[in-house]
Design goal:
mainly beta; HSP40/DNAj peptide-binding domain; three-stranded mixed beta sheet; two-stranded antiparallel sheet; 1 helix
Length: 79
């Protein structure tokens, strides 16, 4: 069984990933450090290790199928 990629929640739109953030040696055991920018999707995935960085408070943080009343247009779709 393959484990799903790690998800990290953040308050910043610009994040760095070296694949070994929790390891003291850092990139020695991971991959080269890259800087990633979270865009309008509300998340970004690292091209090396597939970690997903999700912006806190964004609808994507709650899950793709969960919707809050403020997430929908009051007039309905296509209004």
């Amino acid at each position: 069984m393959i484990n799903p990629p790690e998800t990290i929640y953040t308050d910043k739109r610009r994040v760095s990933c070296d694949g070994a953030t929790d390891i003291r040696a850092g990139a020695v055991l991971g991959h080269p450090r890259v800087w990633l920018e979270i865009d309008e999707k509300g998340y970004v995935e690292c091209g090396y290790c597939d970690r997903r960085f999700v912006l806190r408070g964004d609808p994507h943080e709650r899950g793709l199928h969960e919707v809050s009343p403020g997430d929908l247009d009051e007039d309905g779709p296509g209004a």
